[in-house]
Design a protein that fits this description.
By secondary structure, the protein is an alpha+beta fold. Helix content is about 25%, strand content about 25%. Helix 3 runs antiparallel to helix 5 (about 200-215).
């Protein structure tokens, strides 16, 4: 697809910016699935002040998307119109004091878990969650009976106009895979609080979680984590979701789709709620396979699976029709 560029800034002088600004950036290739097209513009800020300056220079009508590690994204083959901001190393700091951790929005979940354990703070559930803290807040990420909301204190965000705002827990209205942060708020810092335990006990816990993940999930493959939300998230309180029998993977397995393929996209043989790029799958093939799964689960079980993977951008020729009841 040919990209027709527009100039998304309200100034001709961008010399004040210190980060990296690129046209036609292949953002699909830097996401975990390794599929999809380019973004019209990609900006990687050099720090907080630079990010705020960039937003102040950005035209208020320009489409804007913020991504982190790209661990739960399908970037469609036609690419993303508008501007993409990708936070990086400048937003990966970690500070620990007593039972609190202050960390950047781009810090990897696994690193937070590891560094916290070294100080005797139990955030071990984050060790096996892919992605960054910003994304974990947005999705109220969780596993093994713990959720981000259980430990969330506050987040510092940058709004679309470049202003800073601190948002506390009560304003987030956390739910199952849900958080009420404003959609245009960019999470630059998160404060978490967790109970203390011995370093030895926490190291044992980390090891156990890693072993459990290795046994049950397709690690070392091109995937984007859980493809669909557990239906339990809509029929019970999110706190009870891990104990609920209505699991997305079980439904997919029960309708016979473990290992199903569409082109080079495959439903994982190890964990049916993972979609895998086995070789050179296109974004179309992966999303199409996901919609095949959704339709068959509905036909056989009368349950509509909702996507957990975020899909961005435009189709390139072939269009995936989203299943609706």
């Amino acid at each position: 697809m040919t990209i027709t560029h527009y100039y998304p800034f309200n100034s001709d002088d961008l010399s004040v910016l210190k980060g990296q600004l690129k046209k036609d950036s292949p953002i699909g290739k830097i996401c975990w699935l390794g599929v999809g097209g380019k973004s019209d513009w990609l900006y990687q800020p050099s720090g907080l002040d630079d990010l705020r300056q960039f937003l102040q220079l950005l035209d208020e009508d320009s489409p804007l998307i913020v991504i982190g590690a790209g661990s739960n994204l399908i970037v469609r083959d036609g690419g993303v119109r508008g501007v993409v901001i990708r936070l990086g190393k400048p937003f990966s700091n970690i500070q620990i004091e007593d039972c609190r951790i202050r960390t950047g929005g781009f810090t990897k979940d696994a690193l937070v878990a590891t560094k916290a354990a070294e100080k005797g703070i139990d955030l071990t559930f984050l060790r096996t969650i892919p992605g960054t803290l910003g994304g974990a807040v947005r999705m109220n990420a969780g596993c093994y009976g713990s959720y981000l909301a259980d430990h969330f204190v506050e987040a510092t965000v940058v709004m679309r106009d470049g202003s800073l705002k601190v948002i506390e827990k009560d304003a987030c209205n956390f739910g199952y895979r849900h958080c009420d942060l404003p959609p245009d708020a960019i999470i630059v810092e998160v404060v978490l609080e967790a109970p203390k335990d011995s370093v030895e006990a926490l190291q044992t816990k980390l090891k156990k979680f890693l072993e459990r993940r290795s046994e049950s999930q397709p690690t070392g493959t091109k995937t984007a984590g859980s493809a669909f939300r557990n239906p339990a998230g809509y029929s019970s309180t999110w706190e009870d979701n891990d104990n609920h029998e209505l699991k997305a993977w079980k439904l997919i397995d029960e309708v016979g789709l473990r290992g199903a393929k569409y082109g080079d996209a495959q439903v994982s043989t190890k964990h049916p709620n993972f979609l895998v790029n086995t070789n050179k799958a296109s974004a179309y093939q992966i999303e199409k396979l996901g919609e095949i799964v959704r339709r068959k689960v509905f036909d056989k079980k009368n349950i509509v699976l909702e996507w957990e993977i975020i899909r961005l951008g435009e189709f390139d020729g072939q269009i995936v029709e989203e299943f609706t009841r």
